[in-house]
Amino acid sequence: MSRASREQQDRAIRQKALVVHPVLPAEENGRDPLAKLDEAVGLAAAIDLDVTSALLVRVNEPKPGTLLGSGKVNEIGRVVAETSAGLVVIDHALSPVQQRNLERAWKAKVIDRTGLILEIFGERAHTREGSLQVELAALSYQRSRLVRSWTHLERQRGGFGFLGGPGESQIEMDRRLIGERIVKLKRELEQVRRTRGLHRSARKKVPNPVLALVGYTNAGKSTLFNRLSGADVRAEDLLFATLDPTMRGITLPSGRRIILSDTVGFISDLPTHLVAAFRATLEEVEQADLILHVRDIAHPDSEAQKADVLEVLSGMGIEAESDGRVIQVLNKIDKLPPEEHDRLISRTHRPEILPVSALTGEGIRRLLELVDRRLMNSREIVDLRVDLSDGSALAWLYRMGEVIDRQDEDGVAVMRVGMDSGTRARFETAYPYRPN
After folding, report:
1. What is the distance between the alpha carbons of residues 346 and 275, in angstroms, rounded to a whole number?
2. Rounded to whole angstroms, how far apart are CA atoms 295 and 353?
3. Domains of the chain by range and CATH?
């Protein structure tokens, strides 16, 4: 067999994958294990892995060396051999020791949930910001494993080389080199954040409100984005189809122009360092005038997905249940049975909850009208007197509000500022100034 043929065969073997979702005691009363397994298979499919088998494995007592008990390790080993899988995806966090022990036992490459998500991110990030964020997250993950991931960007798959087969050349890095690269990436990301801040400031000078889309991955955000904006952002039935932030200007029924922002999808059990790496992307959400929480209402785990998104938003200081900026968009109602569809439409009377189908367009006009009304009703004109020496307060008002007029006299800036009630409350909490 020629070398080229052997390499082609090796690639085919590596693309065969076995997906395993361990069910730990803590999960017994949580999300549906079958839904979690389906999600893990979807993650594998997102990078074209050929999933030969998917298993639920109950783990009564996690083992420090392998996570799974010896009986389950042997059982899975037989499945690996029978299916010729070159890769086993464990839908759970693995320590470096557990990963190495399982690879030896199964004679196959093993990656955990974090490694798989990072591999997807490595393939999907195309902007400079997205690439920097992914590389930072990958290095933070790999630091304890001492694998040179960031030099694997030239690999034919894209990604970070976590899917390479056993015996593939992997050069260990010195911790100092990884640390230096992480410091450099953080500096570059900070510059990206400053640039994004300048862009936000420029938008404030010709103020267009920002409407941000958030939601669980594959909830239909990009399809809704395309429906609202007429854009052609990648929208597929894939987890993490959108990774890089996308913004477009749209016109509301009143004729008012706003900026629509699509963001990376959230997912359960996302490692903290990965969430932190995407802070710059999520800053658009923090600063948004309105937030559309897009939910896949037809998904069997829709409520659990909602809880995951609310947890991430809460970590950003946004309490969705009480923050007046958040509107729940119940998407994919076209996938509901007719009786359930009609019942949902007839029973949804709360103004912060709106059922739609981004695919068919049902409910989209009502959504735009609701956004229009909320933006009109929330804006206030506030007259303020701010000491010129208080640069922080002045900068805050220019950054977060719409400065309509300003006259400086006797060391005081006499200002007229447009802002919504939430922004006004945050300003009054942070600074002692009150309206004239």
Report:
1. 37
2. 10
3. 3-118 (3.40.50.11060), 208-362 (3.40.50.300), 378-430 (3.30.70.240)
* 406 contacts: CB under 8 Å, gap ≥ 6: 413, 414, 415, 416
Q: How many residues are recorded in the chain?
A: 436
Cα dist from 285 to 46, 82, 185, 215, whole Å:
25, 47, 23, 11
Query: Which residue intervals of 249-289 are DSSP H helices?
Result: 272-277, 279-286
Structure tokens at 343: 């019942």
Please choose, from the candidates 327, 319, 261, 270, the residue with its C-alpha nearest in 3D space to the C-alpha of residue 294: 327
Say how far apart CA 192 and CA 148 lie, in whole Å.
Answer: 25
In order along its 436 residues, the chain shows pLDDT tens digits of: 455 445 444 444 447 899 999 998 876 556 788 888 998 998 888 888 899 999 999 998 899 999 999 999 999 999 999 998 989 999 998 988 999 999 999 999 899 998 888 888 777 766 677 778 778 888 878 776 654 333 333 333 345 555 554 433 334 456 677 788 889 988 888 887 777 666 666 555 555 788 999 999 889 988 899 898 875 545 444 445 444 557 788 888 877 788 888 877 777 776 666 666 555 567 677 778 889 999 999 998 899 889 888 888 887 788 888 778 899 999 999 999 999 998 888 876 676 789 999 999 999 999 999 998 888 776 678 889 999 999 989 988 887 777 878 999 889 999 888 776 667 777 887 787 655 5
CA distance 417 to 398: 9
Answer positive or negative: Cα dihedral of 150, 154, 160, 165: negative
User: Distance from CA of residue 422 to its chain's centroid?
Assistant: 25
Q: What angle do CA 276, 175, 173 make, to 5 degrees?
A: 105
CA–CA dist 271, 312 (Å, integer) = 11
Is residue 150 packed enough to be buried (19+ CB in 10 Å), middle (13-18) or exposed (0-12)?
A: buried
Structure tokens at 91: 């839908």
3-class secondary structure, 257? strand
121-149 burial, b at 16+ Cβ within 10 Å, e below that, comes to: bbbbbeeebbbbbbbbbbbbbbbebebbb
Contact 210, 289 (CB under 8 A): yes
What's the sign of the alpha-carbon dihedral 134, 136, 141, 143?
positive
